[in-house]
Amino acid sequence: QVQLVESGGGLVQPGGSLRLSCAASGFTLDYYAIGWFRQAPGKEREGVSCISSSDDSTYFRDSVKGRFTISRGNAKNTVYLQMNSLKPEDTGVYYCAADLYCSDYPGDYSSWGQGTKVTVSS
Predict the structure, then answer these.
(1) List of the chain residues with pLDDT < 50
(2) DSSP 27
(3) How many CA atoms lie within 13 A of 77 on its CB side?
(4) 73-83: per-residue pLDDT in tens?
(5) Is residue 113 within 8 Å of 23, Cβ to Cβ?
(6) Which of 113, 98, 103, 102 lies closest to 27 in space, CA to CA?
(7) Structural contact between residues 59 and 49, judged by C-beta atoms closer than 8 angstroms
(8) pLDDT given at position 30
(9) Element (DSSP H or E) covering residue 37
(10) For residue 19, which of 81, 71, 95, 70 has the smallest C-alpha distance?
(11) Three-state DSSP class for 33?
């Protein structure tokens, strides 16, 4: 059974950091592009970052460039999203998703996790 599970969310003050994890079971993440999306209350799901399957190229939405990094864990079948200098506008439910190629469009991804909530507030 193919499954993605996110973890690492929580409540953090502005300027703080969190590291989100996306763990896979039933398939090997190394063969897939992994995207991170987020959805704030009342808003559409938006792409945050992606790491490609071919050469681990990384992509970030403009608002998180320089603050977020994405990486693959060594032999742990996990992808991480390191989020630094968090802002209140980063608040939302964060999802990881897998497919063959990176895309900003959620509909392009075939497998999704259940999400982990991130709240940035003082």
Answers:
(1) none
(2) S
(3) 10
(4) 877 799 999 99
(5) no
(6) 98
(7) yes
(8) 87
(9) strand 33-39
(10) 81
(11) strand
Q: How far is CA 9 from CA 56, 75, 109, in A?
A: 24, 22, 22
The SS3 assignment for 32 reads coil
So what's the pLDDT on residue 91? 98
Closest CA relative to residue 48, chosen from 97, 110, 12: 97
DSSP run (H or E) holding 21: strand 18-25
Q: What are phi and psi of 38, to 5 degrees?
A: -140, 155
What is the Cα–Cα distance from 75 to 95, expressed in whole angstroms?
21
Per-residue HEC secondary structure of 73-114 comes to CCCCCEEEEEECCCCHHHCEEEEEEEECCCCCCHHHCCEECC
Are the C-beta atoms of 8 and 83 separated by less than 8 Å? Answer: no
* pLDDT given at position 74: 77
Beta strands 116-120 and 10-12: pairing type?
parallel
Q: What is the pLDDT of residue 113?
A: 96
